[in-house]
Amino acid sequence: xSYNLVLYGxxxxxxxxxxxxxNVHSESNVTEYKFLFKFGGNDSGKGQLSSPxxxxxxxxxxxxxxxxxxxxxxxxxxxxxFILGWGKEGNNSGDFDKLHDxxxxxxxxxxxxxxxxxxxxxxxxxxxNFILKWGFENTGGKGAERTPxxxxxxxxxxxxxxxxxxxxxxxxxxxxNFIKSFGSEGTGKGQFNEPHGIVFDTNNTMFITDMKNxxxxxxxxxxxxxxxxxxxxxESGQFSATAPGIALYEKDGLVFVxxxxxxxxxxxxxxxxxxxxxxxxxKKDGNFNRPEDIAIDPSGRVFVxxxxNxxxxxxxxxx
Length: 319
Hints:
By secondary structure, the chain is mainly beta. Helices cover 8% and strands 41% of the residues. The protein has one helix and 24 strands. The radius of gyration is 22 Å and the shape is globular. The termini are far apart.
């Protein structure tokens, strides 16, 4: 009888410990995201996409996507309805070669693009009409061959490029005149190892994905280092060495980071406190394959450029 009581006690204790452990490792503040719809599809047709790399949503809710496989910009509404597209492979004004990123200035009037092979930025109006272009070779800094991968426009209209090869950030005015560069190769504060994604909040605070250092670095408008978070790994709050995409949702003060290798996005507050993560590898709705970028619409819905699956997926936060 006493043996049975002891055994029962052990079982109860074990179950309690398991439940306690489960509660410790489950994160009570993890939020859920629900798949809503997708658009694109692997083709060169109207509104379809081939290996879309980057995505940007302007203040009016226009969704711009780099249709990288077709060297075109595609513009959609927030329901994924195709509005217009422009560009073709080439090196003339308005053409693209290895189109990599797109960003819109805060006014919503101007669209900027970045090409890897043509080594240039192009500026268009929101109807796709070409305005100007500029290159970025020999623009200050170390004089290394420039290989910017993403760009962003601050609230003063200045254009910033993350230069992967020379581990720097390049700043231009809205006419393409070079202003300055900052950063160097390393692991210290203000140093980078292949910086990639960049985004600004309304105070012109910049958030940068320092990819090979597996961290986010934050600077003020004068390039003064403010904070950093992240480390290499697959736990909550950690990143692979390929976390290229970053976006802000100002209304709730949230920072979203896309991780290409771990095929998920993580959500933080602006101080770097981990909130949640979502995603898994696959082809089904809600799964990702080599996702590159992320954008948040005015209502907080999450748009992901699911590059390997040649589509854009849209999610909403479920409280």
